[in-house]
Amino acid sequence: MLDIVTASEWFGSEFGRPIIIGGPCSAETREQVMSTALAIAEIKEVSIFRAGVWKPRTRPGNFEGAGNEALEWLAEAKAATGLKMAVEVATPAHVEAALKAGVDVLWVGARTVSNPFSVQELAAALGGVDVPVLVKNPINPDIELWIGALERINRAGCKKLAAIHRGFYPFEKRGLRNIPRWEVPIELKRLFPNLPMICDPSHIAGKWELVQSIAQQALDLDMDGLMIETHINPSVALSDARQQLTPAQLSEMVGSMSFPTSTT
Ligand code: PEP
Ligand code: MN
Fold first, then answer.
1. pLDDT tens sequence across 219-235
2. What ipTM does the predicted assembly reach?
3. Which CATH number fits domain 7-256: 3.30.1300.10, 3.20.20.70, 3.40.50.300, 1.50.10.10?
4. Ligand in nearest proximity to the CA of 50
5. pTM of the model
6. Centre of ligand 1 from the C-alpha of residue 110, in Å
């Protein structure tokens, strides 16, 4: 059992449904954050700006995020645009720094969700915190691990919870970057009907041109929102360059998709 408030009680009234989250994989520079946020703020359907500040890279030697300094850029982008800010947190120190900087929404990444020790430490740091927490599926299609992370964070007192479906690791490197296995989020929704389910089509697709069709499939399955990686200049992005949309592409995509008519 999860003791959560329903979707319409938190993001339904505050952020709209479907909730649309847009922003770069990583916050890279002040200019990149500001220019991306200002362009995204023009898209009325987008209510939350995402940016990774600490990046959980699978292999060492890659860009690992700009760290605490990036939180200042996000605070500035929030003041300039009115967009809510969302950041990935993996440690209690991340939680503390993000909340101090005024971050509005936290998310837990797929690699962190795969480790109950990390989730338990995060849950302790989230105790008594009233910000929404979005919990991605683990790397592998292990629904129990996903549920376990939601339960640990919920038992710490977080009631504004949502799940993010970002697909599952395939060994074969062709086609989609991560396999959707739609039956897994569908089963989670069956078990927890009040839990909002957001799709991250960017990490499923792995290529920007495949993002829209995955996003539409998620909406057709009545998912409650989308998180879409968007960068002012994707070709020079320091992480996930191949899958990010430009703000203009995001705007066009959101404008051309058919949204569900239900409001619950
Ligand atoms: C991300 O959102 O940029 C990210 C690292 O995602 P995931 O945890 O789903 O791999
Ligand atoms: Mn990414």
1. 999 999 999 999 999 99
2. 0.99
3. 3.20.20.70
4. 1
5. 0.96
6. 6
